[in-house]
Amino acid sequence: MTSFEEAETEETVTCLHMTFYHPCQEDKMMFRCLNFCKREQVRADEMAKFGRDSSVCRYNLMDARVSRVQFSLQFYRKLNSSEHGFEIKNMSKKTKLTVDQTELGYLNKIDLPWKCIICFGDYQILAETQEGESMDYFETHLHLAKVPILQERCLPSLQPVAENSFSSSSFPSQEKSPVEIDENES
């Protein structure tokens, strides 16, 4: 057997991809302390904290309107399963955090969906989980968005239309009711 055949099987790692957006990023550079485009390992027993206090938070947001600790992410293994997940907890007393449509108050926590949008203040973060096997650590991979995440992901709002009727906006050129004309008339 060759050394390749004898080598241990490489373990895949769960990776949390996070894409950050703020409308004032170009002017205020609030993401300047984040390490973009490079995967970073985090021990499984550590809580990944996001906020402005660099002595407590692993991921620093340089903005006085952000709480010392805005939110935290805890990696865990689901009960009776080999699947892993993340739990998100709002650590801010002043700012509510929304995960997709769920609003979290201070110390509220929920399981992070495998793909979701996290919002607080003017911040938008697209979080996507890539499954892995390792139980010792996970990775984060941070990205910077140039356009608003919500704007990019949302469909234009449509007006509700009853099943047996038509919306007047569907046929804007037909404001008058139809008139029947005999084919012999001009």
From TrEMBL:
Name under which the protein is recorded: TRAF-interacting protein with FHA domain-containing protein A
Pfam families, A to Z: FHA
Species of the source: Chaetura pelagica
Cellular location(s): Cytoplasm
GO biological process: innate immune response; positive regulation of canonical NF-kappaB signal transduction
FHA domain ranges (all copies): 49-121
Family: Belongs to the TIFA family.
Region (Disordered): 162-186
Phylogenetic placement of the source organism: Eukaryota, Metazoa, Chordata, Craniata, Vertebrata
Keyword Transit peptide attached: no
Keywords: Cytoplasm, Immunity, Innate immunity
Annotated GO CC locations: cytoplasm
Top-level lineage group: Eukaryota
